[in-house]
Specification:
This protein is an all-beta fold. It has one domain: YmcC-like fold, CATH 2.40.360. Strands 6-5-4-3-2-1-12-11-10-9-8-7 form a twelve-stranded antiparallel sheet, with no helix packed on it. The radius of gyration is 16 Å and the shape is globular. The termini are far apart.
């Protein structure tokens, strides 16, 4: 069976540190997979992203896995994107929004604060065909999105996984 580079597990929290030339300091970002439903041959996860720097900002979006793609409707560094084609395979290439991406490896080793990961998928994206910069991101099997280094003409940033845990219960919207 192929490695799952972006597991959609309900009630899972991914905690990241985020640095960017767009702000001073280090932001904390939590991405919670709130629920996962099967719809017409695809999995659709409802996710919540909590961005904390000096204040807190929360957004909800979807992550979809169908027979051909894993796609996010929003994200930390860029908005929604096709994360990678399925099944994940070395040499896979695609174009999106003027950017060209390629799965360059399924065997990278990555050591970050969350731990040491082997057999990671490495994706290199040439922004604007390479004229606008480059992004390199890593996904660990059984864990998911663990690291991204983005060097664009408009900003430079890094997102690094710190921990994976159980997401806190959602607050019910009820009447008082």
């Amino acid at each position: 069976m192929a490695a799952d580079y972006f597991p959609l597990k309900e009630k899972t929290r991914y905690e990241y540190k985020f640095t960017s030339t767009e702000f001073e300091g280090e932001a904390r970002i939590n991405i919670d997979i709130l629920e996962v439903k099967k719809k017409a041959g695809r999995l659709v996860a409802r996710a919540r992203m909590i961005f904390e720097l000096r204040d807190s900002h929360t957004t909800e979006y979807t992550i979809t896995r169908d027979a051909k793609w894993l796609t996010t409707a929003d994200g930390v560094i860029t908005g929604g994107r096709r994360e990678f084609p399925l099944p994940a395979r070395e040499g896979a290439k695609w174009e999106e929004y003027g950017d060209s991406s390629e799965v360059v490896s399924l065997s990278d080793k990555v050591s970050i604060r969350a731990g040491k990961f082997a057999r990671c998928m490495k994706i290199v994206t040439m922004l604007g065909g390479g004229d606008a910069g480059k992004s390199v991101r890593y996904y660990a099997p059984g864990v998911g999105y663990i690291l991204e280094e983005y060097n664009g003409e408009d900003k430079t940033c890094e997102l690094e996984l710190l921990a994976v845990s159980k997401a806190p219960e959602e607050k019910k919207k009820g009447r008082k």
